[in-house]
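Example 3.2
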Amino acid sequence: MRTMETLLGGQWVAADEWLQVHDPADTRTPVARVPALSAGEVARAYDEAEKGFAVWRRTSPFDRARVFHETARLLRERAATIAEAVVAENGKTLKEASGEVQKSADFFEYYAGLARNGYGTLIHDARPDTRTSFHHEPVGIVLAITPWNDPLLTPARKLAPALATGNAVVLKPASETPMSGLHLARALHDAGLPAGVLGVVTGRGGKISAPLIDDPRIAAVTFTGSNSVGEGLRRSLADRNVRFQGELGGKNATVVLADADLGAAVNALMVAGFGQAGQRCTATSRVLVERSVYKEFTGLLLDAVAALELGPGASDSTAVGPLVSTGRRDSVLKDIGRAVKEGATVLTGGTAPQDAKYANGCYVSPTVLGDVTREMAVWREEVFGPVVVVRPVDGFDEAVAEVNDSDFGLAAALFTRDLRAAHRFADEADCGQVAVNTATTGWDVHHPFGGFRDSGSAFKEQGTEALRFYTRVKTVAFNFGS
């Protein structure tokens, strides 16, 4: 079992207690242990962040960019080792984990370029002999709370813009998958990030959540995770001058019209519905198919799902890995069971495989459900597993109404050859991310990312839009008259 220390004040530190990390493909033996920090050590993280922020906010943007380019280089150089850690703690396939490392490096390269640019503009002033401008400056100390489903990518998505704009960050990675965040911290540290600018708080949420959230030095909290936790965070910050960014749940729909390339739609669903075992906020979980092609499409879908190989992420032949934990596996199976009790039909999958090679892992067979109604929980609530439900619809208008009949508004996709339908869908789908003839997943580092309604807050992640959350605006007027 590997021991990994955490980063505080530019030093790698251990702790009196340890948090064990398990491989979801075989939970019998821990693969690593990381420090389980105490409340006092959380306070130290903020103490160090104060000192680090004082240095980093005044560091040249060109020097920040150099740190970022070196971080990206180190991530790529260490890609094999980091990807293996992602597989070991999360369960996703080695191909998925390797892609996650490369995209994380992309984030730092992208924001290295933005760090070199000024963020502000010159504006006119009605007063004579006066020149006025506004610019953006860092907000201060940012608390970043990241999930287990993209344990390297999500920290990179948050740290890159936060650090590029001069903030200090305290990172709390998910307890199930802390190794990836520590690998990212190691790359930043080795690239020359000054002490205290990044601190990583590993440990059990029950012990450290209060000191993490309650510290008065926090200027902003960025969170990706469940709606229940996100709404709790929002309420806890409501009476404080702390900005909140939440990237929460989704119940994403894909619409397949009768004129669509059905094979292309099915291929997209293999990625969007079953990639990462369905453990993506942008995963497609609802499929609306025009009635005249419903039977044909469903047949193609079931054939494709049957060809997906379930297994450990480290195996080259695996298409769908395990869920991240036994708790997640049991939750998904419970959701399937509830759907069946409410009248849904299991068209394929629906169980935890019983073969000996799966016995000690957190597996759920890729599942497709039919005979689902709008009132069922499986149609309305996020499952976050390899479960897709299909329903027929009578035309475009009904499909769009079904897409929008949700508390969530993260991502939606349409498959069609009709240009008018494509543009109408882009206009009428009430989601932050809309795709036509491609998957609901796969948004790049420079694409603004985030949902509407219960899927998140008003602040977008990624692209230049992310800079709005991590900066505040200062307006400056100079009078140069005599």
